[in-house]
Design goal:
The chain contains four helices and five strands, in the order αββαβαβαβ. With 147 residues, the protein is an alpha/beta fold. The chain has one domain: 2-Layer Sandwich (Transcription Regulator spoIIAA), CATH 3.30.750. Strands 1-2-3-4-5 form a five-stranded mixed sheet. Helix 2 runs parallel beside helix 3.
């Protein structure tokens, strides 16, 4: 949940990343499971009442981050007030994937856009925790929070 000042609280982010209570994490059923992605990365963009949602499934790394970056930039082209990155099916996240997320966040901040993330399952979520990016990004649990 986004607080009044636009920041997501740390406890809310822990809950959305499944770190507050791993037994009740909305994404815990995905840990160690298949992403359902046919290749290393699948990216699709959905319009949800004027809010672009970029769905990402698979491995976000050096060989695939350009695909995500291109999709995010296309979604940014309509200059939406809010953009959602659904990382709920990301099975792997390396430093170039982190850089791609940070670049999207920087572009959003420059134009006053709200960037929301649906957090990935472990082990990708662990990367966000270790780098403290779980405290920088604003997270939502799922798309129902947009309604």
């Amino acid at each position: 949940m986004i607080e009044e000042d636009g920041e997501a609280s740390a406890s809310s982010n822990e809950e959305r990343l499944g770190t507050a209570d791993p037994d009740t994490s909305a994404l815990s059923h995905l840990v160690g499971g298949s992403t359902g992605a046919k290749g290393p990365l699948e990216v699709s963009v959905e319009d949800r009442s004027g809010t672009p949602v970029v769905h990402v499934a698979g491995e976000l790394d050096l060989s695939t981050c350009e695909e995500l970056d291109a999709a995010v930039r296309r979604a940014e082209g309509s200059n939406p007030a809010t953009l959602v990155l659904d990382l709920g099916l990301v099975s792997f996240l390396d430093s170039t994937g982190v850089r791609t997320l940070l670049q999207a966040d920087a572009r959003a901040q420059r134009v006053g856009r709200r960037l929301l993330l649906i957090g990935p399952p472990d082990p990708a979520a662990r990367v966000l925790r270790v780098t403290l990016l779980d405290q920088r990004f604003a997270f939502i649990k799922d798309l129902s929070e947009l309604d």
